[in-house]
Recover the amino acids of this structure.
């Protein structure tokens, strides 16, 4: 059983999972790797990568639904607004004894601080996009994205 990560552990993931470059080919390779990991887990997910406001990868696996695309958009908007993983944004609110929905004053039909969207951060530049998964419980969505990023960034 997976334990819920702390805010500090989530922040450490963001500091560690940073790109030296992120091209269209990288988006395809990373998205394809994420599809492979999701298939291995038989995960009924939709996968999305946005870079500089452009969708550069999208896949919907068996068992996913149009609702997953709506969740992707809501989670991605949190990353775009806060520059942090959607799960981390939610965790920061929970650590303060509240919820994102109660304290952000943002429309929950537009923003969702649920796990599954992670910032694409470029060294020396900052957040340039987001990689997002939807279809599993929020911590599993987050962990699937992190696993793909770790594997991708560990390549020679």
């Amino acid at each position: 059983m997976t334990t819920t990560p702390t805010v500090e552990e989530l922040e450490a993931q963001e500091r560690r999972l940073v790109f030296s470059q992120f091209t269209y080919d990288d988006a395809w390779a990373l998205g394809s790797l994420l599809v492979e990991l999701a298939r291995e887990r038989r995960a009924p997910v939709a996968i999305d990568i946005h870079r500089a406001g452009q969708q550069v990868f999208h896949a919907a696996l068996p068992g996913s639904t149009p609702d997953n695309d709506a969740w992707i958009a809501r989670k991605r908007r949190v990353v775009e607004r806060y520059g942090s993983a959607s799960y981390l944004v939610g965790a920061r609110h929970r650590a303060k004894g509240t919820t994102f929905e109660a304290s952000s004053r943002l429309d929950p039909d537009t923003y969702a601080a649920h796990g599954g969207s992670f910032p694409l951060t470029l060294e020396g530049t900052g957040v340039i996009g987001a990689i997002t998964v939807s279809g599993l419980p929020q911590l599993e969505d987050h962990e699937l994205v992190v696993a793909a990023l770790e594997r991708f960034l560990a390549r020679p």
Observations:
- Helices lie at 7-16, 24-40, 66-82, 86-95, 100-103, 138-153.
